[in-house]
């Protein structure tokens, strides 16, 4: 069974079509990347299964539940947690409160506040600080921790390296690999070819809302990878 699968999906915002016949799948414990330049539809892949973009043809399978229309909470209840582009830390809430929001879906599992604090000690140190007072890298840690509090089978990361210093990206790469080694599936939507190379095993390339290439990252040359993800 796939954790997430698209089957010939056309997705729209209003009358504007963004995805054209997109098909891909992610199986348990896999590490998969979706590559592509800005504006090719990568975030729309996420918005399609979150119910933000409208699916007018094709189907999406969320852990065995197949449909063409979803509520915003359907993915989380199906074991798919999203770390959104831009992090979306809730203003006015502390780090602790932002993390507890992730647990609201009520899925059981091994992730709780203490385990997230063990993974990101800076969040424990500043637990009662407003989440928006953190640096960009720390806010990304908070967004990841919040997603893990939902005890996902699949962690979806939308441009997690955006705006971060290389040393922070290196740290995140190790964390993503560690999570994968512990059995969490990873979908990495990214343009940073170094991060993709270190985290993913398989890839799909989007161009103008269409999957134009797919394969294994092993053996793929860095120059070929750069061609697909460089802005």
UniProtKB/TrEMBL annotation:
Pfam family, one: ABC_tran
Record keyword Repeat present: no
SMART domains cross-referenced by the UniProt entry: AAA
A Gene Ontology biological process term: L-amino acid transport
A molecular function GO annotation: branched-chain amino acid transmembrane transporter activity
InterPro entries the UniProt entry points to: AAA+_ATPase, ABC_transporter-like_ATP-bd, ABC_transporter-like_CS, BCAA_Transport_ATP-bd_LivF, P-loop_NTPase
Official protein name in the record: Amino acid/amide ABC transporter ATP-binding protein 2 (HAAT family)
Native source organism of the sequence: Stella humosa
């Amino acid at each position: 069974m796939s954790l997430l699968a698209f089957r010939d999906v056309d997705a729209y915002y209003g009358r504007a079509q963004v995805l054209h016949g997109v098909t891909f799948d992610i199986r348990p414990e896999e590490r998969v990347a979706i590559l592509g330049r800005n504006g090719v539809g990568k975030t729309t892949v996420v918005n399609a299964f979150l119910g933000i973009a409208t699916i007018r043809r094709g189907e999406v399978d969320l852990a065995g539940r197949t449909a063409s229309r979803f509520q915003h909470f359907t993915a989380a209840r199906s074991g798919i947690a999203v770390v959104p582009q831009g992090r979306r830390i809730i203003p006015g809430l502390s780090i602790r409160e932002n993390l507890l929001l992730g647990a609201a879906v009520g899925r059981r599992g091994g992730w709780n506040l203490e385990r997230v604090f063990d993974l990101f000690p800076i969040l424990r140190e500043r637990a009662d600080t407003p989440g928006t007072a953190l640096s960009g890298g720390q806010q990304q840690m908070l967004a990841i921790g919040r997603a893990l509090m939902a005890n996902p089978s699949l962690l979806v990361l939308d441009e997690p390296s955006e705006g971060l210093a290389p040393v922070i990206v290196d740290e995140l790469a190790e964390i993503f690999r560690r999570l994968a080694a512990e059995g969490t599936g990873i979908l990495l939507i990214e343009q940073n070819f170094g991060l993709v190379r270190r985290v993913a095993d398989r890839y799909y390339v989007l161009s103008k809302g269409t999957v134009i290439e797919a394969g294994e990252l092993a053996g793929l040359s860095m120059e070929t990878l750069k061609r697909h993800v460089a802005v």
